[in-house]
Write a structure and sequence with these properties.
The chain is an alpha+beta fold. The protein contains 7 helices and 20 strands. It is globular, with a radius of gyration of 19 Å.
Length: about 325
């Protein structure tokens, strides 16, 4: 099932918090942004998602806040992009008990908004996040009949960020500890898929000849599976051969062709279920354009952030990209 994603245009000046109660970090958005959110699922648009919510610290199962919670992807007016992907409860942020002397500042459901609202560069975002305490709520059913439904299950996530200078990073929070993999520290952080954690993906990569190992890797040996390590390896391999683009159109086309090679088709077996790719996004961090491709509609759409009058925009704008097959091109 899909998460019934919406697109949002978020104005400057919004007051938000970390979503974890009285100890939450608070902020007023300094940058406007265009984002996608999975809140449609938890608001009940998909029957499977009706009455789902999350468990904040010391509280019962709580409905999500449309617009604030579960932002999964986007870019701000400074050209800083951010993306959440599923990591799994075995690898993702998981709190069994919370230290009473270390209050939690921010929920993983607010990571993207915190980053895009406040910062222009990867370096700024990494520095600020390293000073926060975070947690992963459990996804639960507000009207649950059993203890498991009310207490929920951990939904681990990790985040990739990039900016207009070409800097990038992968951010994870594992076992209560931040892990920052920063491109400027000599780490290649251009590719992120799902579980396992980023360091384990890099260990897997190091087995192959392109990255110091002895396993052959060419067009005859390239893994074609839907699992996350195979997709990670394919993207790293294809990125190595991607031609230098002459302009932004070629750059988006290059990335789009690689992403299409790593998408999980509808119906394809994936681990213990079927988890297809429902949409893809592409960001031009230089010209500040957010592209969104919902696979059940025939056309890709995009929003040019420089066409938005951020000075006068006072309230968020929403777009449902899923049900209008005539949407195409620049939709603002």
């Amino acid at each position: 099932f899909s998460f019934e994603d919406y697109l949002h245009i978020n104005p400057r000046g919004q007051e938000l918090d970390g979503g974890v109660g009285d100890s939450s970090v608070t902020w007023t958005s300094q940058y406007g942004s265009v984002t996608s959110s999975a809140a449609g699922f938890f608001m009940g648009e998909n029957p499977k998602g009706a009455s789902y919510g999350y468990v904040p610290p010391g509280a019962a199962c709580t409905p999500t806040s449309f617009g604030d919670d579960l932002t999964t992807d986007g870019v701000n007016e400074a050209g800083l992009g951010a993306h959440l992907l599923y990591l799994g409860h075995e690898d993702g942020t998981e709190w069994v008990t919370e230290p009473s002397d270390e209050p939690i500042d921010i929920s993983v459901a607010r990571w993207i908004r915190y980053v895009l609202d406040n910062f222009a560069t990867v370096d700024e975002a990494v520095t600020a996040m390293s000073g926060l305490k975070t947690r992963q709520e459990a996804v639960c059913r507000v009207d649950g009949d059993t203890e498991d439904e009310l207490n929920g299950f951990v939904f681990g996530l990790h985040m990739a960020i990039e900016d207009a200078t070409g800097d990038s990073a992968v951010v994870e929070h594992v076992g209560g500890v931040w892990q920052f993999y920063h491109n400027k520290d000599g780490l290649n952080t251009e590719v992120m898929t799902n579980d396992p954690t980023f360091d384990k993906h890099k260990e897997f990569l190091s087995q192959y000849e392109h990255w110091g190992g002895d396993k052959p890797l060419d067009d005859k040996h390239l893994p074609g599976g839907t699992n996350s390590p195979a997709r990670f390896l394919r993207l790293e391999y294809l990125l190595h051969y991607t031609p230098e683009p002459k302009n932004s159109i070629e750059a988006i086309a290059n990335v789009r062709s690689m992403i299409n090679n790593s998408n999980v088709p509808f119906g394809a077996p994936y681990k213990d279920g079927v988890y297809p790719t429902w949409w893809t996004s592409f960001i031009d961090t230089q010209d500040k354009v957010y592209y969104f491709d919902w696979l059940y509609t025939p056309n890709m759409i995009w929003i040019r952030l420089e066409d938005i009058d951020w000075e006068t925009l006072e309230a968020p704008l929403y777009l449902d990209p899923k049900h209008d097959i005539d949407l195409a091109g620049h939709v603002l």
